[in-house]
Amino acid sequence: QVQMVESGGGAVQPGRSLRLSCVASGFTFSSYAIHWVRQAPGRGLEWVAVTSYDGSNKFYADSVKGRFTISRDNSKNTVFLEMSSLRPEDTAVYYCARDRSNSYHFISYYFEYWGHGTLATVSS
Amino acid sequence: DIQMTQSPSSLSASVGDRVTITCRASQGIRNNLGWYQQKPGKAPQRLIYGATNLQSGVPSRFSGSGYGTEFSLTISSLQPEDFATYYCLQHYNYPPTFGQGTKVEIK
Predict the structure, then answer these.
(1) Max Cα separation, chain A?
(2) With 90 as the cut, is the pLDDT of residue B107 above it?
(3) Is the pLDDT of residue B106 over 90?
(4) Contact B77, B16 (CB under 8 A)
């Protein structure tokens, strides 16, 4: 069965960095785009970033562009989210999610499978 | 960005009730709409894709309808395990955007 497990969350001060990881199993990892979606405490869901199946295409929400970097290592079935210049408003549970589409040329932006999430807290 | 507006923001209902949640898009999104259920402390779980298609394993009491700008999620007979927050997602236009959520509470 499909499993996605995030790690790397924690408490950091504003302006510092944090690196999240997402390890996937149960499917052909190298065939799917992977997303990060976040949820601030008591708030709704916000898409953050996506990497295409091979890492050649990456897209970001305006709120994190220039500060966050998504990457992947298909040999380890792992996606990363490098978060820098963190702000208090980045405090959230970060979920990785698999795209529905396994077409190499199309990202559906429909999130079919989700991990359990990892909490990143930015506070002085 | 496309704005997704859910209504109501919350509702109280009893076991066995029929419940309908509405999602309105600020512009047409064809049928590129999904519905998710989220319980406290848990990740969202997919319910519906393509506006009307039930994901594998989801009980048949859940159904989705709509096209273009108006969509709805209906639970035909609310069960105790259905008390949760529900979100719609448009994935027609970049960036993907969610509704603000509808919390279904026990009356």
Answers:
(1) 43
(2) no
(3) no
(4) yes
Q: b or e along A76-97 (b: 16 or more beta carbons within 10 Å of the residue's beta carbon)?
A: ebbbbbebeebeeebbbbbbbb
pLDDT mean over B20-49: 97
**Is the CB of residue B44 less than 8 Å away from at least one CB of chain A?**
yes
Instruction: Sort out which chain B residues have CB atoms less than 8 A from A45's CB and list them.
Output: 36, 44, 87, 89, 98, 101
Mutation test of the interface with chain B: which of A111, A112, A119, choosing the one with the most B Cβ atoms within 10 A?
A111
Q: Give me the count of residues in chain A.
A: 124
Q: Is A90 helix (H, G, I), strand (E, B) or coil?
A: helix
- Mean pLDDT for all residues in chain B: 97
The rounded distance, in Å, linking the Cα atoms of A68 and A61 is 9
Is B11's Cβ below 8 Å from some Cβ in A?
no
Mean of pLDDT values over A84-93 = 98
The CA distance from A98 to the nearest CA of chain B, in Å, is: 12
Hey, is A30 helix, strand or coil? helix
- Quote the tokens at residue B37: 């259920």
Q: Which residues of B touch A119 (CB under 8 A)?
A: none
Calculate what percentage of chain B has a pLDDT beyond 90.
Answer: 98
Q: What is the CA radius of gyration of chain B?
A: 13
Q: Which of residues 81-100 of B touch A (CB under 8 A)?
A: 87, 89, 91, 94-100
